[in-house]
Automatic annotation (TrEMBL), chain A:
It is a multi-pass membrane protein. Residues 330-565 form the ABC transporter domain. It is found in: Cell membrane. One of its GO terms (cellular component) is plasma membrane. One of its GO terms (molecular function) is ATP hydrolysis activity. It comes from the Bacteria. This is Multidrug ABC transporter permease ATP-binding protein. The chain crosses the membrane at residues 12-31, 54-75, 122-148, 154-173, 231-256, 268-290. Residues 16-297 form the ABC transmembrane type-1 domain.
From TrEMBL, chain B:
GO terms for molecular function: ABC-type oligopeptide transporter activity; ATP binding; ATP hydrolysis activity. This is Multidrug protein lipid ABC transporter family ATP-binding and permease. Residues 23-321 form the ABC transmembrane type-1 domain. The keyword Transmembrane helix applies. It is found in: Cell membrane. Pfam families: ABC_membrane (PF00664), ABC_tran (PF00005). The chain crosses the membrane at residues 21-37, 74-95, 149-168, 174-193, 253-282. GO terms for cellular component: plasma membrane. It comes from Liquorilactobacillus aquaticus DSM 21051. It is a multi-pass membrane protein. Residues 354-588 form the ABC transporter domain. Keywords: ATP-binding, Membrane, Nucleotide-binding, Transmembrane, Transmembrane helix, Transport.
Length: 576, 593
């Protein structure tokens, strides 16, 4: 609840409104039995005017209750609307300050769930709190006190009922909580089976495993049935039990009024309102227990949102540094790096220097640290030790906008957003002209398929880029990377889905059109980096060799080994 | 058939088995309601008797005659009726829970079993998410409705009718006062319910748009960071978030209004009943004792009468969701199933080979993809299918395993028409290795033994060894017992492929269709995949949809497909000499210098 404070403060007038109306609402429902008692007294004493008076009061009171209820809902909805919208905006704002490390720590899936599902829970929580939670204690205390005031000598019936109901709700709701937790787990398992079976339907069918899948599903489904039965039986017991308790209490009350009526004749008029208070007391407890159970989900969600809000971005840019024009030189000085969640360092003590305009290849086996190293150049992570310089400036001293303008990083996995092709390319340069779009598309070899669309650059990309192939996505993603003519361009295995011919064309176009740009190419295949001015060879996070292809063949056994392995396969392809 | 009828039929089919139980529930509900509506009359009697007693007692002349016996009798009756009400309610409630749990379980299993029998076409045409929502959303809605609405509807309706009946039999004027406001209340309630639904829909729509945006942006957060697009992303977010702000208010207001409003109206009605009753008692000169009892009774009845109205209006949307859910499930159950040809000829082995004769096929009737293919494979030979994306390679695979049925032409296994073969026996003889490997949640053992659960441990290990994944598996701390899921990253793409190759090796099919993966894998795994593929192909008749030249070269026969036609055929050397399309493909992919 702590994190909601500032948001609630902004809505202080609505909150006061909601609380006042909720009090009015509670008082009006508490006052009704009192009027009932008065009217009964008036009947007994044959007081016609009093009957009329109290009758009108009763109706006025009920109308006040309805109006208070409407106003209370109005304020609650207002609070819920304002708090959740602002909170959601702040969470989103926070996520936009996150670094790669922060995102990976949470995983993007989990962040989405927090922004969507958890936020929804918070909305429900706020509505319940303002419409129910404040009302319950007032109703409870009010019904208790007024009940005792109505027939003081029967105070013990109220206490007895509270004890019985509390004990019963305690048992039922704690059991229920445990069942529900288990239930959710089984439900998830069942849905996983169903989902996997859908996704793997070809495998299931080709291995004739339909029957076994059904058996597997049935086993899980039967377990859920078992839980359903337990939960259902518990509920089935609960409602009759509550009814029985309240009925017995009413009976007791009438009985004791009856045997004492000669000493307390006025109790006869009070019995109906005493019963009403007993009922109100019972509902207050039951609704209280239920809202508490439901609020617990909201509180858990709130906790998960708090986690996001309290996370500090682990890459921070200096705000007070002037904008700089950086050139394309890069230097690593004794750089070591490990990912936030792991103890094993991914890079050990790496040093190298790259001049502006060079083409650099980075090769090495999977897991050797190629991507880790490249990610340090656009400062997606900070090195654990050592310093990275771009354009002779320590990255920690550079402002974010200058760095982004200088370095462009094309990710391994090409992600595009729904919208037009032009919109996606302009993410690399906001004010890119038509000519610039065309130029970028030509360099990245995307123009050939864009031209086939009637609407060209205005062609819509669907959600999850469903209407594009892997190769097309990669080309557009490269185009987006180079449209701003960055001083440094990093291609992280960005041509993996391109055929060799197109890959070569892209490289040639880069060579021709982006002469002054330092290009880093991370590649699985050595063939992709043969022409590089310098090839960096990584092995287990260490920079084991650097140089041109021909030199490396002589000096680096690791490089030669990788090369031989790839060539031998290729020679086999060619031979025969 | 109308949608409502479809939904009701679905319930009828699934509840048929439980008709005795249902009957019991209905009868018990009626009995229980009778006790419930009758009980307040005894409460009223008790008050009346008590009042009479008091009057007699307070008058010295009649004091000696005053007796509480009638009062006690009324209390005993009240106790009896209360207890009977609770007991019958309990039994009916237990039975209801039982029927609910059993019948929804039956619906769930029924749905899954039906899906297992459906054609591959159905799954290709429908998104996984949509199918899954049958389980997560539609069945869930039905369960909630069964639990909270459908049986509740019976008992509330009984309560409503019962209460009206008893009220009118007790005192017509009071009864009229109680029900007088009902039409107005129902109009108000329906108005609110409709408004609420409309505004909640609007709210959901705006939230849906926002969620879509959030989903896309957060999943592309790395692009946002590397391109410095945070401000742009925030601008888009704010715009949508503001729309949600407006929609949320109305949605929450109207949906939140129902409960307090109905409660308020119930209290108002109670006030009217009390005021009217008191006025009537005083004006009509009803005996005081009887009047008091009457008011006490009608205080109870007014609440009992209002309860069903509140309950049923709040159940409204739940019922609607359940009906929609049932309709969707009924639609699924009406879908055609795969023709399994259980009486068809059983394929036991492949002696001669497989032949495709003049095959025409399209996924849509008016869009043919394969235009008269003729392919022949002799036993033990390997055929490589090559060609650009969209040439129809994968389609051929879909036909050989009867994932789809051909439109025209013949597929012959040892001369037997594929459509006349027993489907199970066909698939037992035809193994496939898919391009994208699928792993199931469970242990590695379960995954390798997927196609042959009865295989021994030794057989399984031997398959894993042939697929070159054994070493990796035993290097894991829990070895073959390691739990995996498709989502986790324990296995690389390449290793997943090896597992699926092992799976196929274990079932030992004489005929194999292998769709080679295109994804980039690291060098070491690449070599393993090559060796594993050699192992799985060896000694089998096979179709390989090939992407790597090193695979193609090994083929006995290469078939080049383009736009659904065979344009070239022959072995590697022959095709190179032709200097045609294949030659072009080959040189293009070989720019290694």
């Amino acid at each position: 609840m702590e994190i909601l404070k500032p948001y609630l403060k902004n809505n202080i007038s609505s909150i006061i409104g909601a609380v006042i109306t909720v009090v009015v609402l509670a008082v009006s429902s508490l006052w009704q039995p009192r009027l009932l008692q008065n009217i009964m007294k008036a009947i007994i004493s044959d007081d016609t005017t009093a009957v009329k008076n109290y009758g009108v009061q009763l109706i006025v009171l009920a109308v006040i209750g309805i109006i208070a209820g409407i106003i209370c809902t109005y304020f609650s909805a207002k609070i819920a609307q304002s708090v959740t919208t602002d909170l959601r905006a702040d969470v989103y704002n926070k996520i936009q300050t996150f670094s790669f490390g922060n995102i990976e720590k949470f995983s993007s899936g989990s962040l989405v769930v927090r922004l969507i599902n958890d936020m929804n829970q918070v909305l429900n929580l706020i509505m319940t709190v303002f419409m129910q939670l404040f009302r319950i204690p007032i109703l409870f205390v009010g019904a208790f006190v007024l009940g005792i005031m109505t027939i003081p000598r029967l105070w013990w019936i109220e206490v007895l009922m509270i004890v019985c109901i509390l004990a019963l709700s305690g048992i039922v709701f704690s059991k229920m909580g445990r069942f529900f937790a288990k239930f959710q787990k089984w439900m998830d398992r069942l849905n996983t089976i169903a989902q996997e079976s859908m996704q793997g339907i070809r495998v299931v069918k080709s291995f004739n495993q339909e029957e076994n899948e059904i058996t597997k599903f049935t086993t899980s489904s039967d377990s859920i049935q078992g839980l359903h039965l337990s939960i259902g039986y518990l509920f089935s017991l609960m409602i009759p039990a509550f009814t029985l308790i309240s009925n017995l209490m009413i009976l007791l009350a009438i009985y004791f009024v009856g045997i004492g009526v000669t000493d307390h004749p006025s109790d006869l008029a009070a019995i109906a309102s005493f019963i009403s208070y007993l009922m109100q007391l019972m509902f207050a407890i039951i609704i209280g227990a239920m809202t508490m159970m439901m609020s617990s989900r909201g509180l858990i969600s709130l906790g998960r949102i708090k986690e996001v809000l309290e996370t500090n971005p682990d890459v921070n840019y200096k705000k007070d540094v002037p904008k700089k024009d950086l050139d394309g030189s890069v230097e690593f000085k004794n750089v070591s790096f490990s990912y936030p969640n792991s103890k094993e360092p991914s890079l050990h003590n790496i040093s190298f220097k790259v001049k502006s305009g060079e083409t650099i290849g980075i090769v090495g086996a999977t897991g050797s640290g190629k991507t880790s190293m490249a990610q340090l150049i656009p400062r997606l992570y900070d090195p654990t030790k050592g310093t990275v310089y771009v354009g002779d400036s320590n990255l920690r001293e550079v402002d974010e906008a200058s760095l982004r303008r200088t370095v462009s990083y094309v990710l391994q996995r090409a992600i595009l957003f729904s919208g037009t092709i032009a919109e996606n390319l302009r993410q690399g340069k906001r004010d890119a002209s038509e000519e610039e779009l065309r130029w970028a598309a030509e360099v990245s070899q995307a123009a050939e398929f864009i031209d086939r669309y009637e609407d060209g650059f205005e062609h819509k990309i669907e959600e999850r880029s469903a209407n594009l192939s892997g190769g097309q996505k990669q080309r557009l993603s490269i185009a987006r990377g180079l449209i701003g003519k960055p001083k440094i361009l990093i291609l992280d295995d960005s041509t993996s889905a391109l055929d060799a011919k197109s890959e070569k064309k892209v490289q040639e176009a880069l060579e021709r059109d982006l002469k002054g740009t330092t290009v880093f190419i991370i590649a699985e295949k050595i063939a992709s980096v043969l022409q590089a001015d310098k090839i960096l060879v990584l092995d287990n996070g260490e920079l084991v060799a650097a140089g041109k292809h021909k030199e490396l063949l002589q000096t680096s056994p690791i490089y030669k080994e990788i090369y031989d392995a790839q060539v031998s396969i290729d020679n086999k392809k060619r031979g025969e | 058939m109308s949608d409502i009828k479809k939904s009701l039929d679905y319930f009828a089919v699934n509840l048929k088995k439980y008709w005795k139980g249902l009957l019991l529930v209905v009868v018990l509900t009626i009995i229980s309601t009778w006790f419930q509506v009758k009980a307040p009359t005894y409460m009223g009697n008790a008050i009346t008797e008590l009042s009479k007693y008091l009057t007699k007692y307070l008058n010295p002349a009649t004091r000696s005659q005053a007796s509480l016996n009638y009062f006690y009798n009324a209390l005993w009756a009240l106790l009896l009726f209360n207890v009977m009400n609770v007991v019958t309610m309990l039994i009916s409630s237990l039975w209801t829970s039982r029927i609910n749990a059993l019948s929804t379980n039956q619906m769930r299993i029924g749905l899954f079993s039906k899906l297992q029998k459906m054609t591959v076409r159905y799954f290709d045409r429908h998104q996984d998410g949509k199918i899954l929502s049958l389980f997560t959303s539609d069945l869930d809605n039905i369960f909630n409705a069964m639990n909270q609405a459908i049986f509740e509807l019976i008992s509330q309706a009984a309560l409503y009718v019962g209460t009206i009946w008893i009220m009118f039999s007790l005192n017509v004027k009071m009864a009229l006062a109680t029900v007088a406001s009902t039409p107005l209340v129902i109009i108000v309630a329906l108005f609110i319910v409709r408004k609420a639904r409309h505004n909640i829909d609007l709210q959901q729509e705006e939230i849906g748009k926002l969620n879509g945006y959030i989903n896309e942006q957060i999943n592309g957060e790395k692009i946002i960071i590397t391109n410095g697009l945070q401000q742009q992303s925030l601008t888009g977010f704010k715009e949508k978030n503001e729309k949600v702000r407006k929609a949320t208010f109305k949605g929450q207001l109207y949906s939140g209004l129902l409960f307090p409003l109905m409660q308020g109206l119930s209290l108002l009605n109670l006030a009217i009943v009390i005021a009217f009753g008191s006025w009537m008692v005083v004006n009509d000169n009803i005996e005081k004792a009887v009047g008091l009892g009457l008011i006490v009774m009608f205080v109870q009845y007014s609440q009992q009468y209002f309860q069903p109205i509140t309950q049923i209006t709040s159940m409204f949307s739940m019922l609607q969701l359940a009906l929609t859910g049932a309709k969707r499930l009924a639609d699924v159950h009406a879908q055609p199933e795969e023709k399994i040809n259980s009486a068809g000829r059983k394929l036991t082995e492949i002696k001669k080979g497989v032949e495709l004769k003049n095959i025409h096929f399209g996924y849509d009737e008016n869009k043919e993809i394969l235009h008269g293919l003729n392919i022949q494979v002799e036993k033990g030979k390997m055929i490589a299918l090559v060609g650009p994306t969209g040439s129809g390679k994968t389609t051929v695979m879909n036909l050989l395993n009867r994932f789809y049925d051909i439109a025209d032409g013949e597929i012959l296994f040892d001369g037997n028409d594929i459509n006349e073969l027993n489907l199970k026996s066909l698939r037992k003889n035809v193994g496939i290795v898919l391009q994208d490997s699928v792993l199931f949640t469970g242990t590695i053992i379960e995954n390798i033994k997927f196609g042959k659960p009865e295989a021994t441990y030794e057989e399984m290990v031997s398959a894993a060894k042939q697929a070159h994944i054994h070493e990796f598996i035993v290097s894991l701390p829990e070895g073959y017992e390691t739990k995996i899921s498709d989502a986790d990253s324990l296995f690389s793409t390449g290793q997943k492929q090896l597992i699926s190759i092992a799976r196929t090796i274990l079932t030992n099919p004489p005929f194999l269709i292998l769709d080679e993966a295109t994804s980039n894998v690291d060098m070491v795994t690449e070599e393993k995949i090559q060796k594993a593929m050699d192992n799985v192909i060896a000694g089998r008749t096979s179709f390989v949809i090939a992407h790597r030249l090193k695979t193609i070269i090994k083929a006995d026969d290469i078939i080049v497909l383009k736009d659904g036609n065979i344009i070239e055929e022959g072995n590697h050397q022959q095709l190179l000499k032709e200097k045609g399309f294949y030659y072009e493909l080959y040189t293009n992919q070989m720019v290694f210098e």
